[in-house]
Amino acid sequence: MNGWSNMSQLEILGNDGKAVLYASRDGENVKLEFEYYGRSPGESDLEVIYTIWSSQYDFIREKYSASETQDIMKMLQFISDTGRGEEFRNDLRSGVIKSERFSWMSFGD
Question: Is the pLDDT assigned to residue 1 strictly greater than 70?
Answer without folding.
Answer: no
